[in-house]
Here is the input.
Amino acid sequence: MVSFMSTPKYPEDIKGGEALLSVRNLRMHISTHEGVVKAVDGVNLQIGRGEIVGLVGESGSGKSMTSRTVVDLLPPGGQVLDGEIEFKGRNLLELPEYEMRKVRGGEIAFIFQNPTTYLNPVLKIGDQIAEAVVLHQSLDLQAARKVAIQCLKEVGLRSPELLVSNYPHQLSGGMLQRVMIALALSCKPDLLIADECTTDLDVTTQLQILELLKASVAASGSSLLLITHNLGVIAHMCERVYVMYGGKVVESAGLFDLFENPKHPYTRGLLKSTLSADSTSSELISIKGSVADLINPPTGCRFHPRCDEVMDICKHQEPPTTQITGSQYAACHLYGSEKTS
Amino acid sequence: MGQTLRRFWSIYKQNKLGVFGLIILAVFTALAILAPVLAFYPPLHTGAGDAFMSPSWQYPLGTDDLGRDLYSETLYGARVTLVISFLAVATSTIVGVGFGAVAGYYGGFVDSTLMRVTEMFLVIPPIFMALVFVALFGTSIWSVVAVIALLSWPQTARLVRADFLSLRERPYAKAARTTGCSNFHIIFFELLPNAMPTVIVNMSLTQALAILIESALSFLGFGDPSMVSWGLMLNNAQQFFRQSWTMVFFPGMSIFLVVLSLNLIGEGLNDVLNPRRKQ
Here is the structure.
């Protein structure tokens, strides 16, 4: 049950300097044999300190690519064409590689989807955590191993002193995901980016992991960017949400506004097609059409071929991002063409 | 350190064949070290007895075409063969792994350049390379070791490169970059442990290759003339095997046993290093 008691923060309204991460007009394209993939095409997002922000979208919407671009881990052929990434007052796009390596893991940490493949199978899990600690906090291996045991304890694993000698294949998926979280938290990062981290887990384990994340983030004061396609996870965890489609942010809103008053047709379609225990209809509703091809995206608004409320202007002109309320923004011609944000 | 060795041994000894291989290698190593003590005659001592004598108490393995005592020759031969092949394999593996890992991981231009260099060494005729080395550095076991290493590292490089081409795509390799690891760290501390099975098995194969190359080179006179090796004995015995089976059998059997033992040790090591073995 989501608590609406605390007022969500909207860093768009906060003057620059208070947001932990501020991505402005980020454009990253990938050159491939088949053409240029416009994976991230003008993305704006902000994350404040201690906030839990969601990033929703289908596969191919650019959400994972955006997070990778923030830490400069571009795919082969990828190139940042435009934009700014401001993190703790520094423009990450201008950092040399050796500085960027300190940021990765030390200040921005990732949690990935399938922990069995994202951990090295021939190294003990204690050593894998200790490796990160040695890299970022100048400790020797012995001390780092003790820190690793402490980290495992903090994520709720029992007998961490015994677990550190285990190999990944000896633990279950849920335990391994906790290990990944311990690894991410080990260097006390300011921003955690969780990329579909509960997708591969069964439902009860999912809940445990989400609760663990929430508690860890609250305890350490770090921010969390939750990338997922699962609206249920968003509803459970996030204060604010960005919705991405076709490499662009199509809507951003506080949690309540997003679920109660979705403005963008894509968001409305997503919500309608989500199954819930209350749904009485026997038919599955889905958004017609298929995901926009990022090499040759539709002209004008990228969503227009699939939109129920498409107008003539949508086929020719890209919609500007319009401010609908103080905290809700949507990129859609339905809301006029006042340019804001 | 002592604790690691003890743990290593408690796992290794479960593989009976691996232990068997280790015993054989230990025996040959001991024989090689004790050769001056155990042999009856110095190496290449012609005229110790008559040619082609059968085994007897004085000449336990018989004599060869020049009356050399085969028992003493085999013992001294162990030294040369073992030292040369081990050194050559060590060098060849280090160089090969270095080239292969870097080429496989980085791909692109780095890969192309390194692979062209590798192929250069594959193309050079072995005899010519031996000639050049001997001309530059004289006939010695170091020349032989160097030539063998230069001839065998490309194969290791190619195998390791193939492994790394797939290893670098593994999710944990990509995840390691998000924790801030440098490429060097990922190649040698994350991915290389995953490539160990290939490297270890390849070391056994390279060792067999090394012995064969060494025998050819010694036979042609590129090795140190004051030293005898099993390969040299075997090569020499080819023309005489109708007259004396012992000339062929003992060096050949020794080579076979050493190569086999290294193979078995390699398998045993693979088992120890594999985290998925049944505990």
Notes: Chain B has one domain: 18-273. Chain B has a mean pLDDT of 87. The first helix of chain B runs from residue 2 to 12.
